[in-house]
């Protein structure tokens, strides 16, 4: 007679499922955060509605402005939201506890990447639909559409790497303050204010920022032009950002 074995024999879920569930949890937590929704959706939507109400009296072309606002939304989600959330996860020991689960460190990073991608896609869709409803009429070329398809993931990767470098090396409070300050600086330098409006000596510096590269790619796409230069800028920032994050990120506070 064979003895009945009632010992637990639990196994971990497949990596793909672990990463997906972690990504969904991260996305839900961010969506429930009012401060992050303010940066990600409320402010960009307010800008689009204000531009539609003011019309041409502001002297801002509708196509370029709507593209700039979409870039601003992606900047807030890819950088500020991720930096603040990760900083406080380090502060309260969340990362240490998650690493003790079947999630590995690579799984945690992949989960964060997937959650940022999901949020960015949803955010861009909401902003684009709102812009179209308020009169936005982009006229993209095939070539620039291909540029944007590559530029947006590169931009999100660059923003996320910089966010992790910041959140993984500084205290949560300092991360919160600096990420919001950098968000405003990025919005002013090349996103909402194109580099062409800056003094000639400052334009080359502004054009080399990842925020400017993303905004330029989207503005060129909306205007029907072709400019592959942002891809080179974003590729360099992605490599530098990942190398920096790998070097300075600490899992414990």
Describe the protein in words.
The protein is mainly alpha-helical. It has one domain. The chain is built from 10 helices and no strands. It has helices at residues 15-31, 34-54, 62-91, 94-99, 105-133, 142-167, 172-191, 203-207, 210-223, 229-248. Helix 2 packs parallel to helix 5, helix 3 packs antiparallel against helix 5 and helix 3 runs antiparallel to helix 7. The radius of gyration is 20 Å and the shape is elongated. The mean pLDDT is 87.
List the helices and strands and how they pair.
Blueprint lengths: L14 H17 L2 H21 L7 H30 L2 H6 L5 H29 L8 H26 L4 H20 L11 H5 L2 H14 L5 H20 L5
Helix pairs in contact: 1-5, 2-3, 2-5, 3-5, 3-6, 3-7, 3-9, 5-6, 6-9, 6-10, 7-9, 9-10
Number of distinct beta strands: 0
Taking all residues together, what is the mean pLDDT?
A: 87
Give the DSSP E fraction (strand runs of 2 or more residues).
under 5%
Tell me the span between the first and last alpha carbons: 56 Å
Helix-strand topology string: HHHHHHHHHH
The dominant shape is elongated
Strand count, sense and barrel status of the largest sheet are:
none
Radius of gyration: 20 Å
How many structural domains can be distinguished in the coordinates? 1
Uncertain parts: none
How many helices does DSSP assign? 10
Structural class call reads mainly alpha
Quaternary state reads: single chain
Helix content: over 70%
């Amino acid at each position: 007679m064979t003895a009945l074995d009632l010992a637990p024999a639990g196994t971990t879920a497949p990596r793909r499922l672990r990463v997906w569930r972690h990504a969904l949890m991260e996305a839900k937590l961010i969506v429930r955060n009012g401060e992050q929704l303010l940066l990600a959706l409320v402010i960009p939507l307010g800008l689009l509605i204000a531009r539609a109400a003011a019309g041409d009296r502001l002297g801002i072309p509708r196509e370029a402005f709507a593209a700039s606002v979409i870039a601003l939304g992606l900047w807030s989600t890819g950088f500020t939201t991720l930096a603040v959330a990760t900083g406080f996860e380090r502060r309260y020991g969340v990362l240490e506890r998650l690493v003790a689960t079947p999630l590995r460190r690579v799984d945690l990073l992949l989960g964060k990447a997937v959650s940022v991608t999901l949020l960015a896609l949803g955010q861009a869709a909401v902003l684009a639909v709102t812009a179209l409803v308020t009169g936005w009429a982009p006229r993209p070329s095939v070539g620039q559409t291909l540029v944007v398809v590559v530029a947006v993931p590169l931009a999100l990767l660059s923003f996320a790497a910089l966010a992790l470098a910041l959140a993984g090396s500084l205290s949560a409070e300092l991360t919160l303050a600096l990420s919001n300050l950098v968000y405003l600086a990025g919005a002013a330098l090349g996103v909402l204010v194109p580099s062409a409006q800056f003094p000639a000596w400052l334009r080359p510096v502004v054009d080399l920022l990842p925020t400017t590269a993303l905004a330029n790619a989207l503005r060129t796409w909306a205007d029907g032009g072709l400019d592959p230069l942002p891809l080179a800028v974003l590729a360099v920032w992605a490599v530098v950002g990942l190398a920096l994050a790998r070097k300075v990120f600490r899992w414990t506070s």
